[in-house]
Specification:
Blueprint lengths: L6 H13 L5 H10 L3 H16 L1 H11 L9 H16 L4 H14 L6 H22 L10 H10 L4 H8 L5 E5 L6 H10 L4 E3 L6 E4 L16 E3 L2 H10 L6 E5 L5 H9 L4 E6 L2 H14 L4 E4 L5 H4 L5 E7 L14 H4 L2 H18 L3 E11 L8 H10 L3 E4 L9 E3 L9 E8 L1
Parallel strand pairs: 5-6, 5-8, 6-7, 8-9
Antiparallel strand pairs: 1-3, 1-4, 2-3, 9-12, 10-12, 11-12
Helix pairs in contact: 1-2, 1-3, 1-5, 1-6, 2-3, 3-5, 4-5, 4-7, 5-6, 5-7, 6-7, 8-9, 11-12
Amino acid sequence: MKNSYNLRSIAAKAISQVLDQGQSLSTVLPGLQKSIADKDRALLQELCFGTLRVLPQLEWCLQQLMAKPLTGKQRTLHYLLMVGLYQMLHTRIPAHAVLAETVEGAVALKRPQLKGLINGVLRQFQRQQVDLMQRVENTDNRYLHPSWLLKRIKNAYPDQWQHIVDANNQRPPMWLRVNRQHHTREAYLALLIEAGIEAHPHPEYPDALRLETPCAVTALPGFEQGWVTVQDASAQGSVSLLSPKDGESILDLCCAPGGKTTHILEVAPKAHVLAVDVDEKRLLRVHENLQRLGLHAEVKQGDGREPHVWATGKTFDKILLDAPCSATGVIRRHPDIKWLRRDSDIAELARLQAEILEAIWPCLKSGGVLVYATCSILPDENSEQISAFLKLHPDAQLVETGSLNQPGRQNLPDAQSGDGFYYAKLIKG
């Protein structure tokens, strides 16, 4: 039985919501996926994520193929064309199926009069594909990044920028975090092998396993029973540095969706954890993750700049501050970040981070540990942030992470390793 919906038109609408309305794909997709069959969900995700990953390449091709772009009320058809080009270039879907389904997308978008245009542009691309692909490689569009971000990465990493950009443009690896309350990593690795799933342990982070090939969580032994969680290796590194212990009072600030909250409790199930986030909706995910893993934390909605409102005079042995940031270290997982962020956001985010750090430092007990973490690769949010904080706070001592000249530790995204992530570990004198 043929579906009553057109997947390409749904993808075009999702891309429009990201590029024209500034919404993130992770907000847009779940609602759209509910309206389609289970078997089509993975393809919809591939079309949306893939198109946004290679957007400059597709945009450049359309500029060569059309005298003027589709704008205004026809803008969604522009994104439909991009979805068509993406399928031809980056999927194994046969060209005749791409053409038929994408042209039908114009009808689903209530623009049947543009079927001929969609068909003509896609057929023209088929004929010119080899030539166009050679020409686009001679432009900066080949890097698939906005120019402001490319410039910042080049400035910060003159020797490594190309490696970073290449890593950002790859599909992300799938990392697992083994729940040590149920199994050792070695024991769970044996269960994976038994299930025919190949995985590799991380050399540094003790709970992390990288799957050779990503798979559905339903295929993972004991996922529903809480034996394992999907979490990038670098994200796991912040809890390794925090080194939580039973009996400690621990604050997980900016905690949603709860990956680090649950990791803290797997390592130290008798710790007293307060998990705080400013976004009430995202706190639902924290509750879901705690429930699946059978763990307990006190969860509160609150602004990191106003601990007097939610901490009620309490002080903590340890604080994990996963600060709001540009997320430039996780672009391969969220390619829409490249098009949602603006250059001016970086200074604003750095200001917000400084305000949270300043507000939260008095909540740490003397001799306590604060781990500052971001999923950014930009120095403004990372080493420069911590450098400025250390100058203002003589009672803060940097340990285990870099030196005063280059404070903190910066992980860069890598195909075989974790995402881009920054950590600084501070002890209060």
